[in-house]
Every structure is written in C-alpha cells, then in structure tokens.
Amino acid sequence: MLNKITIWSVITEEGNLKHNHIEDGWNYGGHPEPISEKFSNQKAWKKLNWHKEHGYLVDGKVENMIREIKI
Prior knowledge:
Layout: E1 2-11, E2 17-24, E3 50-58, E4 61-68
Antiparallel strand pairs: 1-2, 1-3, 3-4
C-alpha cells in the first residue's frame, strides 16, 4: 500500500531539525494544522519554524522523500 505523508520537524534556535510527527497526506502549508481543537498546545505550532518533507509510506516504511525547506 502506498500512502502520501508529510514528515514535520521543528527548526530549533540552533538551526537543528527535531522530528515532531508524521501527517497523513501532503500538507502544502507552512506549518502543521492542529489535529483537533482539544489539543490546545498544537495552536502554538503557528509560531514555530518548521521543516517538512513529503514522501510515501510503503508497507510501513518511509520512501521517496521530497525535501522542502522553509525560507
């Protein structure tokens, strides 16, 4: 099975990437959207600097990464 995914990492103050989560589908926005209103801490995501990569989940493994860098 082939599923589109977006891999989200936060860009730290030091410029390093810190993996945050994998989202189903390809997100074309500049930051991940909150999964639900009940997760109020996710509203702060808009204030962070994000790095995302698009790829595919194939039989439980991430494949064919397409790198996108926030400028």
